[in-house]
Amino acid sequence: MKKEELEAQGYKTYENEDIQVFWKPRICQHAGECARGNFNVFNPQRRPWIDLSQAPATEIADIIDRCPSKALQYELLNPISVVFEEELDRAAAYDRGKLIGECEFEDSDNRWIIMHTGVREAYEGKGIARKLVLKVIEAARAKGVKILPVCSYAKKLMTGKEEFKDVI
Ligand code: SF4
């Protein structure tokens, strides 16, 4: 509902499965609060200038709350978000900004060795571990690196599966 209302008011929509972000260029003051919050998400020199894959949905929502003109607005679709954190060699799952799971790997000779996949007990059984491994696979494909799944969960998920043969 919010999406239709805002689009009727001239907002453009950017969305993924976790969050919808709306931006109205005509009222943006170009004050840069959003870019200062996270330049990987809000980069005015890039097209499209908003990339929602670069941060957890809740972090994006926190930044948008600081937009002085309300040119940016959002709707959280899923409080749990899974993101790839290259600098930490992992994919991580967050619930409203709280770390609730991770899939960690070691980078060895252009091969990512998945050492551990884990989700906090209260969040088990929701498919989060699978999403974490898939997030690492997605990033590996994008970078052209191979994966060696050592952790038992990732190994079971990937071994012998046609859909993952290209990255193993
Ligand atoms: S914080 Fe809001 S007003 Fe400032 S540049 Fe970003 S979208 Fe525009």
Distance between the termini: 43 Å
**What is the annotated CATH architecture of the largest domain?**
3-Layer(aba) Sandwich
Task: Describe the main β-sheet briefly.
Answer: 5 strands, mixed
- Give me the number of helical elements: 5
Which fold name is given in CATH as the topology of the largest domain? Aminopeptidase
Structural class: alpha+beta
Number of domains: 2
Question: SSE order in H/E notation?
Answer: HEEHHEEEEEHEH
Strand content: 25-35%
- Can you give the helix content as a percent range? 25-40%
The gross shape turns out to be elongated
Can you count the beta strands?
8
What would you report as the Rg, rounded to the nearest angstrom? 18 Å
Provide the spatial order of strands within the biggest beta sheet. Answer: 4-5-6-7-8
Q: Ions, cofactors, ligands: which are bound?
A: iron/sulfur cluster
Q: What is the mean predicted local confidence, pLDDT?
A: 94
CATH class descriptor of the largest domain:
Alpha Beta
What's the name of the CATH homologous superfamily of the largest domain?
Answer: Gcn5-related N-acetyltransferase (GNAT)
Low-confidence stretches: none
